[in-house]
Amino acid sequence: MSLHAVIRKDFNDAIRSGTFLATTLLFVLVAGFWAAIQHVPLTASASDVPTSTLALLNSMGQPMSFFVPLLGLGISYAAIAGEGDSGSIKLLLGLPNSRRDVIFGKFIGRCAVLTIAILGGYFVVAVFALFTYESFAAVKFALYTILTVFYGAVYVAIGIGFSSILKSQYTAVIGAGGLYILFQLGWDVVTAILQVITVGYTPPDSGAPPWLIVVHGLNPTAAVGYAARVIIPTFDEIMSYTVSASFYPPKWAGFAILGGWLVLSLGFGYIRFQSADIM
């Protein structure tokens, strides 16, 4: 019953957040805009996937990669640090709730809130597609939606794990911003620098070396792209980077990397919170 109480409290707190509501609204508007563009890359024109379905899912990759991490980190960065900063963590642990209840309750509650935001945005997109696209692959769209929810849950776990090591909400805000920049831009910059140092500005005809592909793929933002190719194999045709002819990541690698980030982040947060001295 304690876990249920934490989930309910966290769900109510997160869903009433003004920042969350504003970001969700922006996500819905941007997702709808990208769906309306109906852009199909020329390289995919011969695909056996219905043109409109490929256009829709390819377009949804933009708001997914940009807004879902923002939503996930935005509702989780203060999960522990904010409670400690306000002093409410003492009350939360005295109800009685175990520290395990707090960590996993916050994760489940905030994932539920994130799911509502994602489903809201994708519902608008699906309705638009049903009325304006030539065809609509509902099953593939549903699988892509599930992948997006999973992707968001990874960032919620990362935010909670990171929040467990911080003492104030102010530092948590700065830290969350740093994490967002790292995963959205910094990781690619580091990978590009490593490429220039090791193989030059332009990769050889055989593609980037395997170890560099692994480094790039460890970023959850890149990993979700690999995972998407399991659902929509024709995404291979529109990938923007060259892969090595001698090394191609297995299709399940994206799911494994995302799962690793989720488990390790949440596990780290739990271990760190268990040993924390609550004053």
From TrEMBL:
Keyword entries, A-Z: Membrane, Transmembrane, Transmembrane helix
Residue intervals passing through the bilayer: 20-40, 60-80, 107-131, 143-166, 178-201, 252-271
Gene Ontology MF term list: ABC-type transporter activity
Organism of derivation: Haloarcula marismortui ATCC 33800
Protein name: ABC transporter permease
A Pfam cross-reference name: ABC2_membrane_2
Cellular component per GO, a single term: plasma membrane
The organism's place on the tree of life at top rank: Archaea
